[in-house]
From TrEMBL:
Signal peptide: none
Source species: Actinoplanes lutulentus
CC terms in the record's Gene Ontology section: plasma membrane
Membrane disposition: Multi-pass membrane protein
Keyword field: Cell membrane, Electron transport, Heme, Iron, Membrane, Metal-binding, Repeat, Respiratory chain, Translocase, Transmembrane, Transmembrane helix, Transport
Region (Disordered): 1-22
Residue stretches of biased makeup (Basic residues): 8-22
Subunit structure: The cytochrome bc1 complex is composed of a cytochrome b (QcrB), the Rieske iron-sulfur protein (QcrA) and a diheme cytochrome c (QcrC) subunit.
Subcellular location: Cell membrane
Protein residues bound to heme c 2: C174, C177, H178
Descriptive protein name: Cytochrome bc1 complex cytochrome c subunit
Amino acid sequence: MTSDTPARRRARVFSRRRSAPSRARRRLGAAVRMIAALALAGGVYTAFTPGAFAEDNVQLSAAAQEGKALFDNSCISCHGRDGQGVEERGPSLIGVGSASVEFQVSTGRMPMTRQEAQAEQKTPQFDETQTKQLAQYIQELGGGPELPEGELVEDLKTNPDALARGGELFRINCTSCHGFGGGGGALSSGKFAPSLHDATQEQIYAAMLTGPQNMPVFGDNQLTPDEKREIITYITVQLQDDRDPGGLFNLGRYGPSTEGMAIFLVGIVLLVFTSLWIAGKS
């Protein structure tokens, strides 16, 4: 058996001292490679992710420049420079698209006078041209959903099949909040689904595209553009033009059920008073 001489012990210590720097260099090299890989991945993501940030030097069209002037005068205090948002005052508008701006501004929901549970519809502060200019500025700033050009449903109004399909889609997707007659309804925490009686075709389409307030977004994978148009056809023809669906007295425009309940209650009261009158006479 070989004895453990002092020379061999010194050799082992020297070998350990040589191996320690080698392990440290390997660890340092692995850390450098990891940092380089993360930096490369971040650079690729930043370069190829569209609409993530607004460009400071973006070239705006003439309409968008007019919209920027309106934005800087009326919206920048809440939504910040270049629509980046202000914490606890207003969200970022990067990526919301022109459809969202057209809905919010044309219905008077924006600009808001104060923070509430829900922005309520009021008289718009901008005319149609100014609204489109604001929308174009936000669209060019960060992209997002846009309204289709041209008339939305003019060719569907005389199509009974489109009207029937629109009614079915409306009952499946919209009545739980807006009611069967489109009169709207209360939600939780002081929020509500608004009435559809005065909504324009563009506002309805924009609301389905962008999902304002508590409304879900109905993207083209949930409702195709043709299905959206059929729903708008049903709303404009059946609920807006025909003001009394299923009844005569326009009781909330919920259909014949409310009128039947009203007739029942009034009839019962009349019968009770008639019975008391007859009993008193006899």
